[in-house]
Amino acid sequence: xxxxxxxxxxxxxxxxxxxxxxxxxxxxxxxxxxxxxxxxxxxxxxxxxxxxxxxxxxxxxxxxxxxxxxxxxxxxxxxxxxxxxxxxxxxxxxxxxxxxxxxxxxxxxxxxxxxxxxxxxxxxxxxxxxxxxxxxxxxxxxxxxxxxxxxxxxxxxxxxxxxxxxxxxxxxxxxxxxxxxxxxxxxxxxxx
Length: 192
What we know:
Helices cover 34% and strands 22% of the residues.
């Protein structure tokens, strides 16, 4: 008896070198944020191609860790993340990202944010008043705190890494290119 193949039986596509570099950069950024603990502020990073940055500014080699230099020597797609200080004031992530633009030397951008999530059915009973909604979410028994790291490249690639506070282990971080589509699209807009 022949078994029909389904989409779920198909092997996952092999990531390109650029996709692997982005995954590695976003995963490193998420692990960095994890070392700082929960209830952290928003972090924004510029992503630059390490080899190109070193070619343009050789003195950068003095500032990068040896591991980054070795990785860039082996992988021409290796990315270095540069945390951005002095972010503009904003009341929402959308407002913050709407104020950002990157020079051409920046190949991509990444962000780390924390959010409370509840099952979709719990949102039906959420109060309309913003203060009451926050209180409702904080007290909800099915609430999960999630850290989301998302990164995009000018060439279109994206990667998201998600960590739940209830499963706060490096080997429990989930990832996919479009796990947080709204965040991915908002990041892409900063590169336009």
